[in-house]
Amino acid sequence: MKALRGYLLTGPAFALFAGLLILPLGLTLVLSFNVFDYNTGVDADAYTLDHYAEVFGDSYFYEVFFRTLWISALTTLLCVLIGVPEAYILSRMKAPWRSVFLILILTPLLISVVVRAFGWSLLLGADGLVNQAIQALGGNPVKLLYTPFAVVIALVHVMLPFMVIPVWTSLQRLDPLAEQAALSLGASQATVMRKVVLPQILPGVLSGSLIVFGLAASSFAIPGLLGGRRLKMVATLIYDQYLAELNWPLGATVAVLLLVLNLVVMLTWNRIIERRYKKALG
Amino acid sequence: MSRNGPLALSFHALVVIFMLAPLVVVCLVAFTPENTLSLPTSGFSLRWFEAVFERADFLDAFHNSLILAFSSATLATLIAVPAALAITRLHFPGRDFLNALFLSPIIIPHLVLGVAMLRLFALMGVSGSFSWLILAHVVVITPYVLRLVLAAAVGMDRSAEQAAESLGAGRVSLFCRITLPMILPGVAGGWLLAFINSFDEVTLSIFVTSPATQTLPVRMYVYATESIDPMMAAVSALVIALTVVTMVVLDRVYGLDRVLVGKQ
């Protein structure tokens, strides 16, 4: 009886997710094995491993995957280096500044990523404010827009809230008395950081890194608008295959690989976090 | 209580500038009287805002986005509330799987969902249909409603419900008069968060919209890849203003820090 009610209440959501999540993902997996010809299109009855062979055999795809990997890794690293101290500084602020600045730093999250990418293109353009500042300081104008630099900067801007949130949450659970006890027992500020604060916020840092890396690796609008035509990341590559080349099966292959890589990274990362927890408890 | 030193405060100031700079620049450029995006500008003008309101394509896209965000947030709330109540209160086989399934759009790249739905809609012959676009959005925003309603339902005191039940209240009146009012902040906050996320969504939408159903972010994305003039800044400034207004409402209804950071 209770089970029946459970299924009735979750039924509408399940129907929608079965039809518009599980089914299309399954169809895309099948599509990635379908034969494709530029003249006749997709042949849904013929299957092949050609697209996977092409992706794994062509250095162009390696280049794009490798670029996506290092850009996401660098973005994650920068988010840790900026987001963790910032969350710590925020947590030491007094009310009302604490919530004012927390909201100021987190609300860009809710503003369209297209708007934020456009803002960065204004700042980093050839006669943008950053180049004007460089020239005012006596330097030569630098090409910033349509370089990996622009993509990384904008990605850090978009992803930083995702790092600040989990670190902030774990800092909230931190007992300030533990810090004070360590200080009163003669530990230096650096030791307190290393031995008291960092171990306790590490799970937050790790889960923040996971979200940032996953979102950066599949980001589309930022590399699309700030990377230009030549600087492809996996997401813009898939977009090109689907909407410019019209080679859907090849695009589906790259999409399947992106999804699998994302899930593998997430699950491995989760394992690491769990092992850390066990170590800390045992 | 230890305080932040000057070094920490300068670092903090730089981070705040970094986070706000692109948004502030967009708003400044939107008021330029010139034809270029250069800053500083020579004066103040509303001509680019006027230009936006003369562009039928942008107005249509804005209209589409509003209807889309409103309908998909409402539908997502209608399916997420019963699902959240079932997940928090009833034990049934497959409950954890369903919970994970309903939250999974958060970790599946929108791009992958976009191409997957493009394929499905093409096979069904409904490419470019506005109704199917709404359903596609419902899938990606349901997790946001679900999370907030789950948090509200878990934290709620059940004794009022038990009292009403023992006094003979029926299921419908129990839900309408006791349960719903108690989880209402979570439901309303979830709806607003879903609305914002649907309104901003670009990656999935770019694959499943047609020129007739184009949403504002998609229109802006396409416009920004083709040409860049101050009108783009004016549209962006309007989007920022609209988002800020929605956020103020969200803050009044549910508390912005609770939405962004989770329960405190």
From TrEMBL, chain A:
Localization, UniProt: Cell membrane
Domain ABC transmembrane type-1: 65-269
Gene Ontology process terms (BP): transmembrane transport
TM region positions: 7-33, 69-89, 101-124, 144-168, 201-226, 246-269
Keyword annotations of the record: Cell membrane, Membrane, Transmembrane, Transmembrane helix, Transport
Pfam family, one: BPD_transp_1
InterPro entries: MetI-like, MetI-like_sf
Record flagged with keyword Hydrolase: no
Keyword flag Nucleotide-binding: no
Family matches, as Gene3D superfamilies: MetI-like (1.10.3720.10)
Predominant location: membrane
Family named by the database record: Belongs to the binding-protein-dependent transport system permease family. CysTW subfamily.
Protein's recorded name: ABC transporter permease
UniProtKB/TrEMBL annotation, chain B:
Family: Belongs to the binding-protein-dependent transport system permease family.
GO biological process: transmembrane transport
UniProt name for this protein: ABC transporter permease
Membrane-topology annotation of the record: Multi-pass membrane protein
GO CC terms in record: plasma membrane
UniProt keyword terms in alphabetical order: Cell inner membrane, Cell membrane, Membrane, Transmembrane, Transmembrane helix, Transport
InterPro entries, alphabetized: MetI-like, MetI-like_sf
Domain ABC transmembrane type-1: 62-250
Intracellular or extracellular location(s): Cell inner membrane; Cell membrane
Biological source species: Pseudomonas matsuisoli
Segments passing through the bilayer: 7-31, 66-88, 100-124, 130-154, 174-196, 231-250
